[in-house]
Specification:
By secondary structure, the chain is of the alpha/beta class. The protein has one domain: 3-Layer(aba) Sandwich (Leucine Aminopeptidase, subunit E, domain 1), CATH 3.40.220. It is 38% helix and 20% strand. It contains five helices and six strands; from the N terminus they run ββααββαβαβα. Strands 1-6-5-2-4-3 form a six-stranded mixed β-sheet, sandwiched between helices. β3 and β4 form a beta hairpin. It binds adenosine-5'-diphosphate. Adenosine-5'-diphosphate binds next to α1. One of its GO terms (molecular function) is O-acetyl-ADP-ribose deacetylase activity. It holds the Pfam family Macro. This is Macro domain-containing protein. InterPro entries: Macro_dom, Macro_dom-like. It comes from Levilactobacillus namurensis DSM 19117.
């Protein structure tokens, strides 16, 4: 059980137990939301990521949030879109599922996701939103935990795509 909603905002401002970072496989920072999270968390976040030795696409690793309002950061590298026939959907679903499971294992009650892979990684927005909402819905239905899950869209177009995908699940 639990809940899901789409909001528009800046995930570095989220006052939640965990935010998810659209990381790359090095976990050593990058552009987009990853860069914003590292800037807001301060240099301790980079120092905490170094000994993690990277992370495979679709997997998830945890650090503290340091100077962020969020207590924890869950780092998950999404797939780079390569046309759709390179397991992109399966890998993106793994990101959401593994991040949710890690949050629950850590005792989180609230977790915020950015729109994984739809920035620099080029995953088509509507397709990504469909995978994300389906995976979150399935995970919540199977879970005994009361987890409040939010998708924090940076812009209105992204928010609309996830709202539509959620509504279309039926
Ligand atoms: P990826 O490399 O996984 O595609 P990006 O960071 O390039 O990740 O983009 C993922 C999404 O995160 C995009 O929709 C982008 O607009 C959004 N984004 C960028 N900064 C923030 C932020 N501070 N809060 C929430 N979303 C953000």
């Amino acid at each position: 059980m639990g809940s899901f909603e789409v909001i528009q905002g800046d995930i570095t401002q989220s006052q939640v137990d965990a935010i998810v970072n659209a990381a790359n496989t090095t976990l050593l920072g990058g552009g987009g939301v990853d860069g914003a999270i590292h800037r807001a968390a301060g240099p301790q976040l980079f120092a905490a990521c170094v000994p993690l030795n990277g992370c495979r696409t679709g997997e998830a690793k945890l650090t503290p949030g340091f100077e962020l309002p969020a207590k924890w950061v869950i780092h998950t590298p999404g797939p780079v879109w390569q046309g759709g026939h390179h397991h992109e959907a399966e890998l993106l679903a793994n990101c959401y599922r593994n991040s949710l499971t890690l949050a629950a294992t850590q005792g989180c009650r609230t977790v915020d996701f950015p729109s994984l892979s739809t920035g620099v990684y080029g995953y088509p927005l509507a397709a990504a939103a469909q995978v994300a909402t389906q995976t979150i819905a399935t995970w919540l239905a199977a879970s005994k935990q009361e987890l409040r899950v939010r998708l924090v869209a940076f812009d209105a177009t992204t928010a609309q795509a996830y709202r539509q995908a959620w509504a279309a699940l039926g």
